[in-house]
From TrEMBL:
Protein origin, superkingdom: Bacteria
Organism name: Bhargavaea beijingensis
One of the GO biological process terms: cysteinyl-tRNA aminoacylation
Gene: cysS
Catalytic reaction list: tRNA(Cys) + L-cysteine + ATP = L-cysteinyl-tRNA(Cys) + AMP + diphosphate
Stated name of the protein: Cysteine--tRNA ligase
Amino acid sequence: MTIQIFNTLTRQKEPFVPIEKGKVKMYVCGPTVYNYIHIGNARPVIVYDTVRNYLEYKGYDVHYVSNFTDVDDKIIKAANEHGEEVGELTERFIAAYFADIEALGCRHADDHPRVTAHIRDIIDFIGVLIDKGYAYESGGDVYYRTRKFDGYGKLSQQSIDELKVGARIQPGEKKEDALDFALWKGVKPGEVSWESPWGAGRPGWHIECSVMAREVLGDTIDIHAGGQDLTFPHHENEIAQSEAHNDKTFANYWMHNGYVNIDNEKMSKSLGNFITVHDLRQKIDPQVLRYFMLTVHYRNPINFSSEVIEDAESALGRLRTAYRNLMFRLGQTADNGDQADVWLHRITEAEKAFVDAMDDDFNTANAIAALFDLARLSNTYLNEKNTQKDVLQAFLGTFGKLAGVLGISLETADELPGEEVDALIAEREEARKNRDFKRADEIRDHLLSQGIVLEDTRQGVRWKRG
């Protein structure tokens, strides 16, 4: 089955056909680095990291780009409040961003372009828009003539007339039309700036992604992605800028993930329900947050609460237990079981269900359901009187591969290593043989304190993380 992607531009699922066979050019809007990322920021990072993983699983060579906005009103304000230079502040929070996404099991992008490294490209790009009549200078600022671009509003499906109703010219703006937006902002006292043909200043927000996407990936890209809140005006303005400049389609597929709510309320600083990943991962395994984010289809809103996180932690624990039970049995002498081909076929069918789910607009919720079906199948197999090494290896290989696509680790970094658990169990068994029951109990209690539960089975002592 061909991958189907829901394209925000057309409001329907479309078969994915890349510009160049076997290759994908993908741009995901990255963070404005003035603070730690919050869990709303984390959702697109997790979602599109998973999309990238699956595209690679399907054999595509993915060029994945995610930018850093490292100059902005919020950044300048935060730098002033902290008594830092803008560059010092952004470097600090870029490092924090990488620490957070790595903890969430997300890989770095292939390229992380920064606005400050592309100022000359941005100036040149704006110059072309002015020459074409799509932009104009006014009192040191440069604005985009929104009405001149035919089709403005096609991504958000809003008409110019609808947009005009709420449009206002703010104090200090020198626009021809209230709908026009800034490409270049003249310098204000105390702000970082660069020289340009229109005077000292800095780029507007929307122009940055248009330029960085073009510089790294070219005039037309396969997939442009980001949060639902970016659909308008950011992505709408990117299309207007890029297609006016390049005379080509900017992106063939637009993907947008839904919002994150906190206890059924929209997350916001004013409500006091603003949760950073930096703080949250001090309290829970960050892999639990990743798992939770994938339990709902990416286009739907998702509600964060302590209860759903506890459920996610429990569910992830069951998957890890199933995996470890397979590892445990593999470490024992495996007999030649019957009906190996039947079990191998069932494993293949479980993987097919996973693929069908992900082919359907990256439906991670159904993909997780397929992963649990595989776990239940493996538990059933382990209850068989005889097991076969090839089947156990097939279960483990498929389990690891599919969990890897979702970016879910079946191990955790801070837990007692499996080899150490096995060594303690062996020591306990030796103590029991020597009737040293005190030492045996001490070992059991120590393992229990580490969340390790021992189970006596016909095949020997099995352990799991409780």
